[in-house]
Specification:
The longest helix is centred in the first third of the chain and has 23 residues. Helix 5 runs antiparallel to helix 7. The protein has 225 residues and is mostly helical. The protein has two domains: 65 residues, Helix Hairpins; 119 residues, Iron/manganese superoxide dismutase, C-terminal domain (minor pseudopilin epsh fold). Helix content is 45%, strand content 10%. The chain has a three-stranded antiparallel beta sheet.
Length: 225
């Protein structure tokens, strides 16, 4: 398989105290790595095993016969975005290109955080909360289960895992506390800024990365909504 084994961009305890070492270890090893191993097992010795992660997701997303493989592959990709959306000693007000984009779209950073928290609170069940670039502006997007913006033609700026396993060890069932901690102590605005900077250098507005583990690109497939 051509998909690289998932790796964290920091060490297990580096997000403490906002996210405990146990939470990162459990999440990474018992969820993302398990999804990776199951994805690899399902695609082994098939033509799908030769595909890269993004192509694998696109091919299997519309195939009822490969629903399990799609879900595992999408969760691997989603988690890659999630880990890069956080950093040690992160959080606080947005700055740089993303701050400008948020002000233009939502009016102020405070209005953005209010809408982001409201979207997370309103979502029922498992899923993902995203900040994406779509049609020349930023948008808040919530998806169910393993559904990924990759198949919608959106470019991911930030990802927040809303599955209960993402926050239960540190916050029990208090999703709102988890989202607040993400915004105040963890969010990696530099990741969002790097994606936006790349977008400004690409004529068609679709970010292009040459090293998949450090980017979470959506290449402009036919939108599936």
């Amino acid at each position: 398989m051509t998909v690289e084994t998932p790796a964290l961009p920091y060490d297990f305890p580096d997000l403490e105290p906002a996210m405990s070492r146990d939470s990162v270890v459990f999440h990474f090893l018992r969820h993302q790595r398990v999804c990776f191993d199951r994805m690899r097992a399902l695609s082994r010795d098939t033509a799908l095993g030769a595909l890269g992660l993004e192509e694998l997701i696109r091919v299997t997303e519309a195939s009822p016969a490969h629903r399990a493989l799609y879900r595992y592959a999408a969760e691997v990709w989603n988690h890659n975005a999630f880990w890069r959306s956080m950093r040690p000693r992160g959080g606080g007000a947005a700055h740089g290109l993303i701050a400008t984009a948020l002000a233009e779209r939502f009016g102020s950073f405070e209005r953005f955080t209010h809408q982001l928290k409201a979207a997370a609170s309103a979502h029922f069940g498992s899923g993902w909360l995203w900040l994406v670039w779509r049609g020349g502006k930023v948008e808040i997007l919530v998806t169910h289960n393993a559904v990924t913006p990759l198949t919608r033609g959106d470019t991911v700026l930030l990802a927040l895992d809303l599955w209960e396993h993402a926050y239960y060890l540190d916050h029990q069932n208090r999703r709102a506390a988890y989202v607040t901690s993400f915004l105040e102590e963890l969010v990696n605005w530099e990741f969002a800024n790097s994606v936006l900077a790349e977008l400004t250098r690409v004529p068609d507005g679709a970010a292009q990365w040459t090293h998949p583990p450090t980017g979470v690109r959506a290449e402009r497939p036919v939108a599936v909504r």
